[in-house]
Amino acid sequence: MLAQYATPLTFIALGAVFAYSFYAVLIAGQLSLGQAGFASLAAFTAASLAPSGDDVGDVPALLTAVVIGMAVGATAAVVLGLPTMHLRGVFLAIATLGFAEAVRVVLLNLEWTGGAQGLAVPRVLTVGMAWTALAVVAYWFWRMGPSRYGRALEAIREDELAARSMGIDVGRHRLAAFVTSGAVAGLYGVLFAYYVRLIAPSDFDFAAAVDGLVTAVLGGSTMFLGPVLGSGFQTMVPEIQRAVGVEAGWIRPFLAGLLLLVVILFLPGGLTSLIPRRTRVPAAGDGDPDGDAAPGLAARRHPAPGETVVSLAGLSKEYGGVHAVRGVDLEVRGGEVVGLIGPNGAGKTTLVNMVSGLVPPSSGTATVLGTAVGRTPVHRVAAAGVSRTFQHSKLFNRLSALENVLVGAHLVSRPTFLRRLLWLPSSRRDERAALEHATRCLHRVGLGHLAGTRASALSYGDQRRLEIARALAAEPSLLVLDEPAAGMNHVEAGQLSELIRSLARDGLTILFIEHNVGMVLETCTRVVVLDFGQVIASGTPAQIAADPAVIEAYLGTADPDDGEPARGSVADGTLADPTGGGGDGGATGAVTNARPSVAGTLDPPDTTPRNAT
Ligand SMILES: Nc1ncnc2c1ncn2[C@@H]1O[C@H](COP(=O)(O)OP(=O)(O)OP(=O)(O)O)[C@@H](O)[C@H]1O
Questions:
Q1: What's the whole-number mean pLDDT along residues 105-133?
Q2: Where do the record's region annotations for Disordered lie (predicted)?
Q3: Can you tell me the distance from the alpha carbon of 231 to that of 95, in angstroms, rounded to the nearest whole number?
């Protein structure tokens, strides 16, 4: 019975193994077409170098060939990956396709490969062996998914910049994914060679690479079962055709193309996205906000109060002719909550981007937590203790709220993947510690009840809170928040203000940009005002509220005709509601997104949520 289906079943397994070599990089958001090159190099090298089955037995011969093939595939991936890993999207696809084609042409013209005639290889592989190999590969990716490493790859796929800011070394992770892909492609090449009896370079051409990619994309790159589903479909269609007597060769590519179109248009996550993705949410009580810190996470020593955390000297940034930041000198000390305010385009975001290492300064120096930023990669700045949120939400949208925060804990949690492969209890302990820590961070921002919700499904205000929870999960010493209250109502902004002050009581130093001036005055120990890229004032909230230069540059000037302070100007250290309409006139939330317009007036507050751009 099984013998009748042995061939299609073997090809399903082989196709799935090949598709896993694409899945290995798709999961990290990379598009590579070099796998056919890795597979052919592995197949020809292993078939030439492995001992004969007559000498050592069939299975040892195949196992030796597999080891050689995987090593060749992985080595080729390192050689190709080192110069190409900085390429993105279609550029990486083109570069890797060029490599695969070059390999094919070289193999075609070498004598020992048999050229176009090909190389004879004994058939050793059985359907059982093929499925065993597939099971091992699927197991690898199954155990990888929820590990710290697997989550880091997913984070890179979802938002590379945010992943870097969480302390993930993107280059190293992308190269590791590429090498895995090379090893799996090498495995496929050897298994294929030891099944089909005769291999030729044309077995690993462009069409084969596209077939592998289509199989992986059809199945989906967000769940480890994707390649098996994709390969099942790709292999079974011609079998079904044959069974019903419709043998037209165009049907399979036509259906595969059609399905690919449907998947890309309606199911970007592939067939596996029809299977609900489960997030393991800790039971109620776990990650209690009042609980003790979870053991098993790296502890960080925050700078003592008064110790220098940020030191900027003559920091400037130019974009062409635009002077976004000009000669800023600024010291931020341990335990301070520093608010950065200023009109739109004043250079606030550029300044915090330089502080967090995202943007190199044009001139001047910046030392943050002892690290010279500008010359230091973003993930190293994060490792020094800088964590941040972004002006325009940079969440990992297809991951749940809890998974987002788990990625945030990357720097303080331990690697678990290799121990997960071996089911070591210590990996379960570490995962539990990370889960409890992440849950505690979610509770702290009031999102404990939404742990299992996809980030993209959260309301705008909740997304802002989730970014803060994710940043907190890194146990930072310096927390940089870029407009954290955008899209929040007055009550929520008040709660956020209280949260920020409680974090400062815990020893964190906080630098935050906010257009809600009332909230800034209520929350900060010091306020710095930027205008046209320069610091025009720095002092306590009361000093800033009374500073004529700030009123002039930021809030507008008093109306010279009536001699009264402007609506929205500062009378006694608080801001009046610029709408003039029944506001409490107090600090919290009194002015939202205030912008100077004509002298002495303020635009009505912009309370509409800002779209993430
Ligand atoms: N990548 C860039 N390329 C060119 N110009 C830029 C870039 N980033 C910022 N700028 C310019 O630098 C200036 C400061 O921008 P920045 O975003 O830092 O101001 P901001 O104070 O944060 O403004 P907002 O409150 O509107 O966010 C603006 O004139 C902006 O157009």
A1: 93
A2: 282-302, 556-613
A3: 26
Closest Cα to atom 12, ligand 1: which residue? 324
**pTM for this model (two decimals):** 0.84
Confidence of residue 555 (pLDDT cuts 50, 70, 90): low
Radius of gyration of the chain measured on its C-alpha atoms: 29
* 145-154: pLDDT as tens digits: 899 999 999 9
Question: Hey, whose CA ends up nearest to atom 13 of ligand 1?
Answer: 324
Whether residue 28 is contained in a domain is answered as yes
Task: Give per-residue burial for 521-536: e unless 16+ CB within 10 Å, then b.
Answer: bbbbebbbbbbebbbb
Pocket probe for ligand 1: among 349, 351, 354, 532, the residue whose CB has the most ligand atoms within 8 Å is 349
Q: Which of 328, 341, 348, 350 to mutate to test the pocket of ligand 1 (most atoms within 8 A of CB)?
A: 350
State if residue 117 touches ligand 1 by the CB under 6 angstroms criterion: no
Q: What is the ipTM score, two decimals?
A: 0.97
Contacts with 241 (C-beta within 8 Å, 6 or more apart), sequence order: 247, 248, 251, 252
In-domain check, residue 453: yes
The residue segments making up the domain with residue 452 are: 400-467
Q: What would the pLDDT profile of 241-266 be if each residue is shown by its tens digit? A: 777 777 667 777 777 778 778 777 77
Total structural domains in the chain? 2
